[in-house]
Amino acid sequence: MKEYCPVCETFAVMVTPEALAIVSGVSERSIFRLIEANEIHFLEGPKVYVCMNSLRVQKERKNQNRSIEK
Fold this sequence. Notes:
Distance between the termini: 38 Å
Number of strands: 4
Helix content: 40-55%
Strand order of the largest sheet: 1-2-4-3
Shape: globular
Order of helices and strands: EEHHEEH
């Protein structure tokens, strides 16, 4: 679903951590760790929804850090 992410200040695809775990192969627990560490944006209501924009940015940052370490 598309919702407004107040941190990105744009509309973004938002998915549940459960759905994200299934499609990404990352454990749901790891996703909640990223949420708790404020590394990815989320909306909280009856359910938690993760901002896919912030997940993409977080992955790019992680890949850049790996390149620098080599």
